[in-house]
Write a structure and sequence with these properties.
The complex is a heterodimer. Helices cover 70% and strands 4% of the residues of chain A. By secondary structure, chain A is mainly α. In chain A, strand 1 and strand 2 form a beta hairpin. The C terminus of chain A is likely disordered. The chains are: A mainly alpha, B mainly alpha.
């Protein structure tokens, strides 16, 4: 392998492979829609495939960013889809009860109520995981199962439609020529990055994910950190729920945010954050979420029948996971390691090939 | 940790009569679930006795209406006992209904040929997932998630619309009633009970069953003991795939159509039934009988809500969630007691 040091450094960067996948997916579109990258100005709004990818991907990015922190502490949050549904249902049902749906104060109050409900869900998850010591996957399963029932209870099994201009803004409106939701996402991502990378918080989260007990012994309040990330994740899901329901001007307790937890976990994994906890990458997650949204868009534009969408997604998940598995890389590219354990161990010794050195980095994390 | 690999199935384990021992008894969750089922049933009897709740058929309907869930949950029990998780259950069921309907209706193949094919496809899917989980050390959660997408996608590839089955052999099979003195069971329910019996035998009286417990209890110890861990893991997922496909066939019989959206989210019901049945999600502790009671409790919730009449269907979800929560907390207090 002809690798100059700089090239090797580049391929080793944790964002390299996710970005490559994203760029390849974007380029695949060009032969089918030649003006894929062009962005037009119509009615003072920017339109174009790239803009719509970010617009439709924004709820997923939000949920995935929250999920990244949860996964970084070694947990997982399955309840985000249900939280999306509950938030949308509460907010829409409050707005639809108003005499004047256009009133800004009423809309803000409704959004506040929705987000408070999301935070309560997050607190409950955090309480079960951190205080009661229940496995995250099970603790969050409770709201995942019951939450949709609650959302349907709120909407009374109906799809509530609202007709409110101010509320329409957050998910479907435009501001400074761009979709407003892009600004919301940018703000949330920026706040998260600043909080986790410019303060010690990110380090604490990684430390709790690496070893919760050891972190506690060195004086980190690991329980508090855990509760915090679940609340943050639920809050992100709540904002995403506002966006989804505002975009369609309707709250659907059954289908809002259906499977978004799986897409979000997938985005986190594609972004290079290990499901075992420890090191995380917000940038990677954003790229991962964009990859998923681009994949969906690509499937539409290249004319693959839409029903194969899920099969495509499955194939991509499998490929990405296999590429991330140190054992798989050791077997396929590795230094002749055969058979289970031995292959992985050989990959752990520093060799010249790029994939195996990537494996070393991964193993250090876990 | 000390008790997790101890005789998992010994029916006559030593029981010193102290309260701590009772609380530490790993059969307690199953008894609690069985007790809950009885209490719920008695409540149903007292509330709806004028509406025919007491009839044997109402009780047997629990088995008829939940036969597919029981089979799927038995498969999930094996996976969860081994410390893994299988999210693809619902999708495989949906795929099997679609596959069977398509083969029988569109291709005109006889049911006798289609059934083994459907089972083989499900088992092979499970085998592949197990293979990837074992050999590439990817988390079961992610691998079976990919399986969930794949099978649901394949459903849609076969057809976007639902295919109803008009084949006479299917409908006659679906309508066959095996009478049990005044009441009857469907073929699906009997298949489910047979699966349950086989699972009981395999789990408690074969070497394979012991290995499943051992791996779930502590994978590292099982490996050091020299158990063929890889083969067991793959076998567990294969079995879950097979059970899901079988559940899919029962579902096809029950509903007599194939639809790409059949059984969406059924994996959650299956996992909930297993947890309510007292199996630890960390693996290594639990019984198939518990799963039976878990499924019966979920089924009873549904029929109680039907008998009540005024409650909407979403109360089923809420009640399931609340029960799930209660049982997880019970499990938690039990395991923390065992450790100290």
């Amino acid at each position: 392998m002809t690798t100059t040091p700089r090239w090797r450094e580049l391929t080793r960067h944790h964002l390299f492979w996710p970005v490559v996948v994203l760029v390849v997916l974007l380029l695949v579109n060009v032969p089918f829609t030649p003006d894929f990258f062009s962005i037009k100005m119509t009615d003072g709004h920017l339109y174009g495939s790239l803009v719509s990818i970010v617009l439709f991907g924004s709820p997923l990015i939000l949920v995935a960013v929250g999920m990244t922190l949860v996964i970084a502490t070694g947990g997982i949050d399955l309840s985000v889809g249900a939280v999306v549904a509950i938030t949308g249902a509460l907010t829409c049902s409050y707005i639809s009860d108003q005499a004047d749906q256009e009133a800004l104060s009423g809309v803000l109050l409704a959004m506040g109520i929705g987000l408070v409900a999301a935070v309560v869900c997050g607190l409950w998850n955090g309480f079960l995981v951190a205080r009661m010591g229940i496995q995250p996957i099970i603790a969050t399963l409770i709201i995942m199962v019951a939450g949709r029932g609650v959302a349907q209870l709120i909407t009374d099994g109906q799809i509530i439609t609202v007709n409110s201009e101010p509320y329409k803004l957050i998910g479907g409106g435009y501001w400074l020529t761009l979709p407003f939701s892009i600004f919301v996402v940018a703000a949330v991502v920026a706040v998260t990055v600043v909080l986790t990378r410019r303060t010690a918080l990110g380090l604490l989260v990684e430390s709790v994910g690496g070893n919760a007990e050891a972190s506690r012994l060195v004086g980190i309040r690991s329980r508090r950190i855990k509760i915090m990330v679940y609340v943050f994740c639920a809050l992100c899901a709540g904002i995403a729920g506002l966006m989804i329901s505002s975009n369609t001007s309707a709250a659907d307790g059954n289908n809002a945010g259906l499977w978004i937890e799986l897409d979000a976990i997938l985005a986190v994994v594609i972004g290079g954050t290990s499901l075992l906890g420890g090191r995380f990458s917000i940038g990677g997650t954003v790229v991962g979420a964009l990859v998923i949204q681009t994949l969906t868009t690509t499937i539409y534009t290249i004319g693959v029948p839409t029903q194969t969408n899920l099969v495509f997604k499955a194939v991509v998940v499998i490929i990405v996971c296999l590429m991330q598995s140190p054992k798989f890389r050791a077997k396929v590219f590795g230094a002749g390691g055969f058979g289970g354990k031995r292959g992985a161990k050989q990959a752990a010794t520093p060799t010249d090939t790029v994939p195996t050195s990537e494996a070393v980095r991964k193993m250090e994390v876990s | 940790m000390t008790t997790t690999t101890q005789k998992p199935a010994a029916p006559d384990s030593r029981t010193p009569g102290t309260a701590a021992r009772v609380l530490g008894d790993r059969r307690l969750p199953v008894l609690v679930t069985a007790g809950l089922f009885l209490v719920m049933y008695v409540i149903g009897l007292s509330r709806y006795q004028n509406y025919g709740f007491a009839e044997t058929q109402v009780f047997l309907n629990l088995f008829i209406d939940n036969s597919y869930l029981l089979v799927a949950a038995v498969g999930a029990t094996f996976v969860i006992l081994s410390g893994g998780i299988d999210l693809s259950v619902g999708s495989v069921i949906g795929f099997t209904t679609m596959f069977t309907a398509w083969m029988v209706e569109r291709q005109g193949l006889p049911l006798v040929v289609v059934i083994p094919m459907a089972l083989a496809v499900g088992a092979f899917g499970g085998y592949l997932m197990g293979y990837v989980i074992q050999n590439f050390e990817i988390q079961p959660f992610i691998v079976t998630l990919a399986g969930l997408f794949l099978f649901r996608g394949l459903c849609l590839v076969i057809s976007k619309e639902s295919i109803s089955i008009g084949d006479s052999s299917v409908s006659s099979m679906a309508q066959t009633q095996v009478s049990l003195g005044g009441a009857f069971l469907s073929i699906g329910a009997i298949v489910a009970l047979v699966v349950l019996a086989v699972a009981l035998y395999v789990l408690h009286y074969t070497r394979f069953g012991r290995r499943v417990y051992a791996i779930g209890g502590n994978e590292q110890s099982a490996l050091l003991m020299g158990l063929p861990q890889g083969g067991t893991k793959i076998a567990v997922y294969t079995m879950s795939g097979f059970c899901s496909a079988l559940a899919g066939l029962l579902f096809t019989l029950y509903i007599q159509s194939g639809d790409p959206l059949h059984a969406t989210g059924l994996e959650l019901d299956a996992i909930a039934a297993v947890v309510i049945g007292g199996t630890l999600l960390t693996g290594g502790s639990g019984y198939v009988v518990g799963t039976l009671f878990g499924v019966l409790v979920l089924g009873l919730i549904k029929s109680l809500i039907q008998f009540e009449g005024t409650l909407s269907s979403w109360w089923t979800k809420i009640a399931t969630g609340v029960l799930l929560c209660a049982f997880i907390l019970i499990q938690r207090t039990m395991t923390s007691r065992r450790k100290t």
